[in-house]
Amino acid sequence: MQLYHHPFSMDSQKVRLALEERGIDYTSFHVNPITGKNMDSLFFRMNTSAKLPVLQNGAHIIYDTVEIIQYIEQIAIVSSGGGEISSGEVVEWINKIQEWNPKYFTLSHIPDKYCHFVSKFTRRVAIARMAEYPDLASAYHCKLREEYETQDNLRNPEVLRRSGEYLVSLLDEVETKLGETPFLVGEEFTMADVFLVPVLARLELLNLQDEYIHSRPNIAKYWEVVQQRPSYKKVVGKYFNGWGRYKTLFKTWYCLRVRSMLRRY
User: Fold this and answer.
1) Residue 234 confidence (pLDDT)
2) What is the rounded distance in angstroms from the CA atom of residue 179 to the CA atom of residue 23?
3) Rounded distance, CA 263 to CA 124, Å?
4) CA atoms within 13 A on the CB side of 179
5) Torsion (CA) 11, 16, 19, 23 in degrees, nearest 10
6) Model confidence over 90-109: pLDDT tens digits?
7) Strand order through the sheet with 54-57
């Protein structure tokens, strides 16, 4: 089983957390979307949306994060000879959390000069790949158009307002729920928590923990607990706690600058 992912990707974190929590072995392949590696032809032919993560098990390839999680649960049940699929309440929380798209919220909290630099680099990668692989030109053109649409939406205050309001509403609901149970659905860590943890990790990465996490005591307590789980330390903490955060970001930024100067798209 192969997983194509990257530490920056929230959906990748969700899938890796699920794999680690269920104890399922997999082969890891890093595909960095910021440096345009998700548009390299080998990966792009497998998934023309260029989105992460992608799970491949033989000829079976899954792109949708929720479907990947369901597939992982089925494998875990078969492997262990027991267990059960997530309950309706867990699925409800999964869908509710997954409905929030972190892209615009994240980009709106990053300095414009960095956003513009990465966007320009991404567009040049798409254009270069269009010329290099004519048979995939229409798919690359869709990615190019998507990048322009992203920039337009970032200038739309209504898009940013809706994203922020949904996040606040979601966290308020989570805060209420965590006042009743230690985890989102009862006494045990479930797939619902697997989807929530990367959201909180993203807020901390953006240095917004005081506004969104620490201001909600139940979530703050929950956050301290889940950060101690081995799955969190391996999937998220390794890359974004302490010096690991700067190492991960610096490595990517350095790669972007060098490739841009050398015009290697």
Assistant:
1) 95
2) 29
3) 9
4) 8
5) -160
6) 999 999 999 999 999 999 99
7) 27-30, 2-5, 54-57, 60-62
Judge contact between 7 and 13, C-beta under 8 A. Answer: yes
Residue 144 tokens read as 């190019």
Bridging pattern class, strands 27-30 and 54-57? unpaired
Question: What are the start-end ranges of the H helices in 27-101?
Answer: 41-46, 65-80, 88-98
Q: By the 8 A CB rule, do 118 and 34 touch? A: yes
SS3 144: helix
Q: How far is CA 65 from CA 62, 72, 171, 176, in A?
A: 8, 11, 21, 26
Angle at 33 between CA 41 and CA 53, to 5 degrees: 85
Q: What are phi and psi of 49, to 5 degrees?
A: -75, -20
Token representation of residue 188: 């045990």
d(C-alpha 169, C-alpha 176), whole Å: 11
pLDDT at 83: 66
Question: What is the four-CA torsion angle of 234, 231, 198, 86, rounded to 10 degrees?
Answer: 150
pTM for this entry: 0.93
Residues 196-229 have pLDDT tens digits of 999 999 999 999 999 999 999 999 999 999 999 9
Q: Which amino acid is at 122?
A: T
